[in-house]
């Protein structure tokens, strides 16, 4: 793909689509600025090359009701960017309206403006060409550095870049890095290739598991989806979470996997998912006692998974092994995270919750890559192509 290295930004205004859809606290403060930090190399490069920045992102899923949507303003995000980039950042009160137009037309090289939440405009979701033209008219060229949004076909991802001549469209360093790691995972992964899949639902991961089974030597299962697989095999799962309407899917995936899919061989069980009331114990084997809830992989499973991860050439991990946000149920997810951190393999972590776990354990710098994508990372692992990237030409 054409990258920002291929474009000349001198004296130019670059419209950069970023994914600043960051988690907010109840008071509306940015609680995790990982996605903002991840865009800095691209932003700094364009500024150093003599360009000016017009940044556009969505934040949350506004409903169209201005009162309910007020917390989704980009004000706090712009303020956090200003702290992180160490230069003044202006914030426009609209996306393509009079304030955005005035601020963008007065923009000088080295200056930065953050437009208001692009999803405050109904044309964004619809991919409306008129809205796309209005947004594109603010700038001289377009950069996609919004990896987390690449699976969306909204105006700012597809119709806006189409407004620019092909030689003025590029991907930023973040998208480039994410695509490089995806290629290492899905192209010719260094063997043995291992996938670790956790989380609550099999239904969210069917396409990912199907595609990964074509690539991996071993697929390790954890999280609550374990119990849908175990029930599908005819085991007793106590009161564990289970998708009863997906047992046939689970059976099909197990058949498809041949011997590649590994399920936990022991379990941390509890009588209550409330950590204050939890009485936990470890159960060996594949059958859980009546009334017990499987809440984490057991210590034997954690050790076995850690060993497989340490001996792998490539590992991709999505989905926690248990209810890691509560201390009594954390051990399995922590052990897998530590194994990822100390493995010599190419190790990639993706999906909101898993990235959060690795950050929380302070291990984000020890794995090869923590993706900024949630849904986008999963769809990429499913092998889906993205229109938002198809509109960026290949390098000539
Ligand atoms: C994400 O957080 O996965 C992206 O920012 C996309 O957000 P969306 O799911 O609201 O489109």
TrEMBL record:
Pathway: Carbohydrate degradation; glycolysis; pyruvate from D-glyceraldehyde 3-phosphate: step 2/5
Keyword check for Cytoplasm: yes
Locations listed in the record: Cytoplasm
E.C. designation(s): 2.7.2.3
Main location: cytoplasm
Gene Ontology terms for molecular function: ADP binding; ATP binding; phosphoglycerate kinase activity
Keywords recorded for this protein, A-Z: ATP-binding, Cytoplasm, Glycolysis, Kinase, Nucleotide-binding, Transferase
One of the GO BP terms on file: gluconeogenesis
InterPro entries with a match to the protein in the record: Phosphoglycerate_kinase (IPR001576), Phosphoglycerate_kinase_N (IPR015824), Phosphoglycerate_kinase_sf (IPR036043)
Enzyme class: transferase
Any GO CC annotation of this UniProt entry: cytosol
Residues engaged in binding ATP: 205, 294, 325, 351-354
Residues holding (2R)-3-phosphoglycerate: 35, 119, 152
Pfam families: PGK (PF00162)
Annotated catalysed reactions: (2R)-3-phosphoglycerate + ATP = (2R)-3-phospho-glyceroyl phosphate + ADP
Binding site residues for substrate: 19-21, 35, 58-61, 119, 152
Keyword ATP-binding: yes
Matches recorded under PANTHER family: PHOSPHOGLYCERATE KINASE, PHOSPHOGLYCERATE KINASE 1, CHLOROPLASTIC-RELATED
Subunit structure: Monomer.
Family membership noted in the UniProt record: Belongs to the phosphoglycerate kinase family.
Name of the protein in question: Phosphoglycerate kinase
Protein's organism: Tautonia sociabilis
